[in-house]
Amino acid sequence: MAFHLLEKDRDGAVELGRALAEAVTAIGPCERCRMLSDGALCPICQSAQRDPSMLCVVESPADVVAVEQSAGFRGRYFVLLGHLSPLDGVGPEELGVAKLEALLDEGIVRELILATNPTVEGDATAHFLADLAHRRGIRATRIAHGVPVGGELEYVDGGTLAHALAGRQTLT
Asked: CB 164: neighbour CB atoms within 10 A?
């Protein structure tokens, strides 16, 4: 992209630079969920159409966008901005767990949906957060992992296939 802008669209490069500089000063974290927002609260947290009893925990703002594009979730979010990684110095404090616990302690959330990435760190983070929820009597669920819709088994990696087999469901 940089080469294209420098070679063929220098005016576009200047405009892009201006837009990025404006975004850096105008956009920050939502006070409630930590999603990127140009106001104190993001549009999702402000919406009366969302179900506040369901809270989906994700690792990044891009994950919120991905879940929203699926149009399958109408609750609210909490963005960790990472995952637990003690070797990298990322603990509960860096992930805003105190803020998440405050949301859980309000007594509104009934289900904590853990949508962290299917990695060792993402799984460890999900287990840590599930324990926080269980101690408060809140149901903790984990998003499913497995074979993508339209995927062919011969092209699916072994780890994904093992997860899919372990999470199989009975057909009625």
From this structure: 17
User: Residue 73's domain is classified under what CATH number?
Assistant: 3.40.1360.10
Biggest alpha carbon–alpha carbon distance for the chain: 61
> Which structural domain range is residue 137 located in?
50-144
Residue 145, pLDDT score: 84
- Count up the domains in the chain and report the number: 1
pLDDT average per 10 residues of sequence, the chain (172 residues):
91 94 94 96 96 97 94 95 95 97 97 94 96 97 86 83 80 71
